[in-house]
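Note to self: keep these together.
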Amino acid sequence: MDGTPIDVISNETLKAKIIEPLLLVGKEAWGKLDIKIKVHGGGHVAQIYAIRQGIAKAIVSYYQKYVDESQKSELKKKLMDYDRTLLVADPRRMEPKKFGGRGARARRQMSYR
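Structure:
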């Protein structure tokens, strides 16, 4: 993560989350690859999940480009069966605040008298 080796991460749970996609596909799938990831924005946990998703997507795209399509499909199915968020991003985003209220949807209370 940003030039820091994975061994330096102190929280074992977060470290396991990063290694999850690598353990799922096996050493033979990524053994000859050199993985370097740069991430910015969000908190530590969000960055860990972004790294995790990036690793999984990169391995699948590597298989699509340099290995055959059937092995890529098997790999993708294995990852999707384990955890869908490894390959599919969460589309939810913060809705911007609008005028006339405290938030995006909340409005000030109307007074009729």
